[in-house]
Amino acid sequence: MTVPLDTDTIPTRGKRPKQGEPVIDRALSLLAVFSDRRRALTLSELARHAGMPAPTALRLIARLVAWGALERLEDGRYVVGVRLWEVASLSPRGHGVREIALPYLEDLFEVTRHHVLLAVRDNEEAVLIERLSSKDATEVAYRVGGRAPLRSTAVGLVLLAGADQQFQEATLRKPPESEPGVENMPEGQLRRTLSDVRRTGIAMIRRSHPSQTVSVASPVFDAQGSVVAALSIVVPDGSTPPNVLAPAVRATARAVSRNLGHLAEVSPGVRTHSEG
């Protein structure tokens, strides 16, 4: 007996699935629907946000649940599954850097007792891979696994300053996205700021939302001298001058860099970026 194929999920030779989109792309589009504000969603909500028919979404969701990428709650809504976190934790740019940096982050946290952050760049955004915070620390905008803009965060400026020239130019040419609590820098000012970050090894941003804070960040280098992460501390604005925080942040980032194999020659003063 011939078993009929599900033509919605298995493409015939030389043809794409319905809607002109590969099955894997549609499955990923369902996962991409989840965000900080959409952590538990119904089938109809997932289908609507992903822009696909409910029957198609249901078939894909069933497979994602079976694999562990999604989990179904008792009320019928779906949430991201633990299996995704398990797989994501294997990322060398995330877990590897975090594992080496964590003891140094903990030491810095003991000094500040507010927030210590570690972020890496993923395309045009920074992704927070670690955050140490005390229970009394001031409120901040980003969580572990959350994404932050490059142009308006201290870790973002560090990662942008350490990116290749072509990426920087493409980013600078794009109109900045407005973000509450911080002013976007004009292109000329941003160029000068990135130059200062490369020269001093320090980026600083003041923010008024969700609370009045100042963030000071410094780059983490790998053995090849590339910026692989940004390390920062976030404290209430006015509690400690940024110039007092900078040496501790810079020293911590240098220590992490050395453990990643970076052997830069650091001259007296503030230079931390090896040219070339």
Give a written overview of the molecule.
The chain is of the alpha+beta class. Helices cover 39% and strands 18% of the residues. It contains 9 helices and 8 strands. It has helices at residues 23-32, 43-50, 54-67, 82-88, 92-112, 154-161, 165-173, 187-200, 242-259; strands at 70-72, 78-80, 115-122, 125-133, 147-149, 203-207, 213-221, 227-236. β6 and β7 form a beta hairpin. Residues 1-18 and 266-276 have low confidence and may be disordered.
Which short descriptors sum up this protein?
about 280 residues; alpha+beta; Arc Repressor Mutant, subunit A; 9 helices; single chain
Summarize this, please?
This protein has two domains: 69 residues, Winged helix-like DNA-binding domain superfamily/Winged helix DNA-binding domain (Arc Repressor Mutant, subunit A); 168 residues, 2-Layer Sandwich (Beta-Lactamase), CATH 3.30.450.
Kindly provide the radius of gyration, computed on alpha-carbon positions and rounded to a whole number of angstroms.
Answer: 22 Å
The CATH architecture of the largest domain can be given as: 2-Layer Sandwich
Mean pLDDT: 84
Give the strand line-up of the largest sheet.
Answer: 5-4-3-8-7-6
Run of helices and strands = HHHEEHHEEEHHHEEEH
Helix coverage percent: 25-40%
Q: What's the number of domains?
A: 2
* Amino-to-carboxy terminus distance: 66 Å
Broad structural category: alpha+beta
Kindly report the CATH topology of the largest domain. Beta-Lactamase
Shape: globular
Low-confidence stretches: 1-18, 266-276
- The count of DSSP E runs of length 2 or more, i.e. the number of strands, is 8
Largest sheet: 6 strands, antiparallel
